[in-house]
Amino acid sequence: MKSRNILPLLCGCLLGCLACAGPAKEAKPGAGQDLAIADSMFAHILDKYNVEKYGLLMETYPANPENKVTYLAEGSEQAREQEVSFLWPYSGMLSGGIALYRATGDERYRRILEERILPGLELYWDELREPACYQSYPTFNGESDRFYDDNDWLAIDFCELYALTRDERYLDKAKRLYTYIYSGWDDTLDGGIYWCEQKRSSKNTCSNAPAAVLGMKLYALTGEKRYLDRAKETYAWTKEHLRDPEDGVYWDNVRLDGSVDKAKYTYNSGQMIQAGVLLYLQSGDTGYLDDARETAKGAFHRFTEVKTGVDGTKARFYTASPWFNVILLRGLVALYEVDKDPEFIRVMARNARYAWEHTRDANGFLGSDWTGMRAKEHKWLLDNACMVELFAQISAIE
Length: 398
Fold this sequence. Notes:
- It is built from 14 helices and 14 strands.
- It has helices spanning 2-5, 7-20, 32-48, 87-104, 107-121, 148-165, 168-182, 205-222, 225-242, 266-283, 286-303, 322-339, 343-358, 381-395; strands at residues 50-51, 56-57, 60-61, 68-69, 80-81, 125-126, 133-134, 194-196, 199-204, 251-255, 260-264, 304-308, 314-318, 379-380.
- A hairpin with a 6-residue loop joins strand 6 (125-126) and strand 7 (133-134).
- Helix 4 runs parallel beside helix 6 (148-165) and helix 13 (343-358) crosses helix 14 (381-395).
């Protein structure tokens, strides 16, 4: 309890350093503006969304009195008042902080991660149910649902943090989460990982594709072949069951009766692009690279369209929600590092810069629509946290 009480004071000191400092000296030429935006958003979110009582963050800013806690475990009281964010949007701040640290090498981002964001994250950690993992709402509220995809994203982040710091705690955490994630694999539908531990009604691209990425990252960090083998198996299962052969874009999930939910989301394709590139780089099998290229092309045509922005100009926009787009960006960046063709990334970069210049609200936050034509009063944490990662990522490419 004592360490939790000092978090708001510590956060304030660190945010003061962030607000006064410019982009890190190590930033690449031309990257300063994007890194400055990422830095500004990171600090501003931690300041405005802060819930001092817990050292956590609000779901929206301003706080929406209609926000309620859902995803509670069976038998728990439903629809209670929501004091802090769910795990998913909170995890976006971990991803954003890591992206800034990777882009700049600036140790102040590591301090904020280790002294502010990671301690808050541990309030979601559930060891009462085995295997241990992060649950969807903090454990001080009791048990809540546990999602395999939530833990995929965090495990990938811990791999990234270990690669940057070589702190064994982060590798150990990624391995523990990997164990949890694959506890969601069984022989139903010949394999695949469920979406939610408590609601095993479907096997989703969003739980399997990032599991393949995670396996490749753990293989790169440890050299243990079991991670490579499982990544190949998971990739193959997802491609077989959930890839649209017409355009290479991925459907959302397959139900236990074998029927497919054919909704398409940017992040599902983004993770399969990234997994394919990582498998190609390890194996030299150009089939994986061909898959990635086809899915990237298909995703661009499926998920972008010419829209009119809030200032009346027309441009091509990625129309999905920001976080979904940022996960697609991870795949596009991985492919760019092989093909050196930045066009798909440039469109998203232009979208992000447009949103920053034209759609910020009076509080300095962005909405879910980068054109600015559909504004909302209460800005979701995830829609803003993910932009920290986006601006940090494009700073290294543009």
